[in-house]
Structures are given as C-alpha cells and as structure tokens.
Amino acid sequence: MDWIKDLLFTNSAAHTILIYCIVISLGVMLGKVRICGVSLGIAFVLFAGIAFGHFGFSADTHVVDFIREFGLILFVFSIGLQVGPGFFSSFKKGGLILNLLALSIVLLGASVTLILHFISGTSLPMLTGIMSGAVTNTPGLGAAQQALTQISVNGGIPEISLGYAVAYPFGVLGVIITMLFIRKIFRINVGNELSMYNEYQHPEDRIPEKVSILVTNKLLSGRTIRDITSSIEYSFVISRVFHNGELLAAGPDVIINEGDIILIVAQKKVLPAIVSKIGVISKMDLETVSGTLTSRRVFVSNRNIFGKKLGSLKLRNRYNINITSINRSGIEFVASSEIRLQMGDKLTIVGDEESLDKVTEELGDSIKKLDEPNIIPIFIGILAGVLLGSIPFKIPGIIHPVKLGLAGGPLIVAILLSKYGYKFQLVSYTTPSANLMLREIGIVLFLASVGITAGAKFVPAILSGDGFVWMAYGAIITLIPLFIVSFIARVILKRNYLELCGLLAGSMTNPPALAFANSIAATEAPAVAYATVYPLVLFLRIFVAQLLILLFA
C-alpha cells in the first residue's frame, strides 16, 4: 500500500489534484449545512483548506501560487463579462455614491489600524498584515512587504505574513456576518429588495406595451410612417397598419391616412402622450386580426451582426419588416435604430413569412452557435488583463510603484471586452450557465489554495500568546468600518440591500463574500455593485498599505 502513502504525502501532480479535489468537494458539501438557518456556502472551501494545511497536506508552493492566482483570474474575469454591459450605466444610477461609500470603508479601516497601533503598541508591520488579512487583500499584503524591503525593515516581513494568515479567515466571515446582521436588524425581505432593485433598474413603465390606435389627427393624414415617428418626440415603433380592410406591414414609406388603425409598441409611461398626438385607442386589436403578417422571435447568433447598430442593417427597408422589441438578458425594451446588437439578443419581428425567413437567416437564430464557447476572446482578454495588472504606476511620494495586480487587471479588461469587444470582432458572449461554471471553478480553486497555504501557520498563531489578540484586532478592523458604512448606506441613503451586499464584498476585495451575496438572490445586483467599486478599492488598498509602512513604520 505504499502507493497510497506516496499519493497522499509525496508532492506530485496526482497528489496536488487529489488534495484539491478533496478540499473543494468537502468544503462545498459542508458549506450547504445550515446552522441557525445560515450556511457559509462556497466560502467553507477556505476552512476545509485550512484544516488540510494544518495537518500537513500541502503541495508545491509554486503550483499552489499558480492555482490560486489563475483561479482568482477566472473568477474576476467571468464577473467582468457578466456585469460589463451594465457597468458604465451603473454610474448614472448611483455608482458615484457606491464608490464614496467604499472609499469611506477603506479610510475607516486604515484609521482603526493606526488607532490600534498607538493604543496597543503592536508593531505597525504586524497590524498592516492584520489589516490586509482583515480586508482579504493579498495585493495590499504584497505591496506592504515590498515597501518594508525598500526601507530595509526586513524583520517585519514575517510579522506581516503571520498577521495576514491569522486575520484572513474572519476577514471572509466578517463581511458575511455583516450582511446577515444588517438583514436581521432591519428585518429585510430579500424578495422585496429584489423587486425594488428590478423596478429601479428596469421600471415597469419602461416595459414595451402594444396598443392599437385609430388615427384621428388630420395633421398626420397623408404623411409617411417615417415622418410621423420622427415628428413625435417619444420613441415608438409602428408595427402594423390597417387600411381599407387590409392589414399592411408598416414600412417607413407607408402613408397613414385619417381613419387608419395602427399598432404601436412603446414604453408604458409614454403611451398616453403618443396616443393623444395620433388619435384614440381603437376597439379593434390588430394583433388578433388575421392576415399575411405574423410575429416571430429571432436570436442574434451571426458574428457579423454583433456590435452593429440596428438602424445600420436597414432591415425594414430591405425586407419590409418591423422589429418592435428586443429582449436582452431577460429585459425587454423597445427597439431603436441606435441600439447595438449583442450575441444572444432576441428580436421580435413582424412581417410576412417569406420576409421573416430572410431576416432570420441573416440574424442567425442558432441556439447551437450561442452555446459554442468563445475561447479565443476569453484568453486574449486574460492575457491583456495580466499585462494591464503588471503595469507599474508611479505615485508621487511612494517609493514602490502601484500595480492593479492579477485581480484588478483582468476585471477591468473583462468589463471593457464585454462592452466594446465588437470593435475588435471579439465576441465574449457566454451562456449564463457557462459563465457560472467558469466563475465557480475559479473561486473554489482560489479559496482552496488560500486555505492550504494559511493552514500550516494558522493554528500555531492562534495558540501563541498573542494569537487571539491579533484575531480580535482583525475582527475590529473588519467589522467597525462595515457596520458604520452599512448603517449610513441603509438608514440615511436608503440603498438596496442586494446592492449593499455587493458594496461590502467589493470594498473588502472579497470574492468569497461576493459568492455568498450572489447566493442570496438570483440577480446581478451584488456583482454589479462589486465591479463598480472594485477597481478604485483595489488601488486604495494597495496605496494605503504602502502608505502606512512608509509613513509610520
């Protein structure tokens, strides 16, 4: 049975794979166990890794480092792809406030660290390490270590690493505890919060509705559909025209006469204004009128269409059809000529069967193509992200340059790729299930690696004379800023709970906490908030860690 002993205790590829599989499987299974109605979810993989690391199950350091960083890259990159399309618009809907709240958390954490240093007399390198672990920020730890090397305080490097290892586990738990505490203290109903978030992002009055209108405005009589739609300041689409007992396709050059009935598609909030300018609501519903016209849902799967403006395709003129609405990621909105089409968009098209067949062929409408993974853009994106994260940025007054690292660089590139990839013919579209799989694999690899690495030092640090004191310091640095800002965000600023969870995870650069937040409700709200604050927070965490060492060590 020597082969089992070699497999368990001898460093090899098989040994490393075995350890990771056991740690991840055990962590995920135990993470589903609910205690007092609460489960840690995927974050339990970290603690499974710590347990295995403590009992001597480890792997080659370089291999663990690679798996940890690659797992983190996969996680943040898939997050970037998911939230990228809505990332920039989020700034218009409170992104500035979210970043100011995140800034407050960072500054409060640094202030608490300095106060503990002056009150307790604990060395600042140790407390800087504790702070980095308490906010689960590995780049900040590395920056502080490099700053110590620059000022020749090498003796403080082991202290930083030990402080980080002791504080890290509660750093993960502290964010989750804060989420649960806020939920409990304010008696938050997650379902209500989800509804309010969806209403805020995609109000019901913006959902497209159809209505048949009898044309009574004499000023519109004899004018083309193109003239009518351009003369009314609201955005709407004329889908069908009923003229002299005949149902017609609403081409741009079709002339509308008084007494005609037209079927329009517009946002609910502007329908009354549009109706008042055209006529009155008709008793005849044109959707129920039989004729040669029909409606069809068509997917965009043609790569040549990706990124093009709907108006530039001139589909209405070439095929005499109308595109009334677009469904993107479950959100329905009125079709506009300025909208850039994305892979996976579902278009509602009205026309005769022959024309619809031609349009369908041009757009693709292939579920099989949408299911195919776009591997090349993903790895090109990761390459660009690693390069961006490795660029040193010189900051006046700071000796060592600041870098975005292997988390910040790929995240930013993924956001940009999902938004502007069409300009370079890079299709980053992934199905929701594929994105989720990529994200989950990445986070469990990262957590397992961190746990295995910290496990050997964790228990000895705890059992040492100051171990529990250091843990207490870490808990204070974690919880005080989170509690203060959470109360401000919820009570004063009335921020949505799901958005607040993403803010807390992002402000602590905490992927496990984000994974927990994502499990609370089926929504992108936490991920969007996380990605909104993450770039700024990552920079600030690195900058603050170096600044503490350079100014006070």
Describe what this molecule looks like in 3D.
It is a single chain. The chain has 553 residues and is α+β, with helices and mostly antiparallel strands. The protein folds into two domains: 2-199 and 373-552, no CATH class; 204-369, Alpha-Beta Plaits (2-Layer Sandwich). The protein is 61% helix and 11% strand. It has 20 helices and eleven strands. It has a five-stranded antiparallel sheet. Strands 8-11-9-10 form a four-stranded antiparallel sheet. A two-stranded antiparallel ribbon has the order 2-5. Strand 9 (322-328) and strand 10 (331-334) form a beta hairpin. It starts with a helix and ends with a helix.
Give the topology:
Blueprint: H1 2-9, H2 13-31, H3 44-54, H4 61-120, H5 124-134, H6 138-150, H7 156-185, H8 190-201, E1 208-215, E2 223-224, H9 225-231, E3 236-243, E4 246-249, E5 255-256, E6 261-267, H10 271-278, E7 279-281, E8 293-299, H11 315-319, E9 322-328, E10 331-334, E11 346-352, H12 353-363, H13 367-371, H14 375-390, H15 405-420, H16 432-463, H17 467-492, H18 497-507, H19 511-520, H20 525-552
Antiparallel strand pairs: 1-6, 1-7, 2-5, 3-4, 3-6, 8-11, 9-10, 9-11
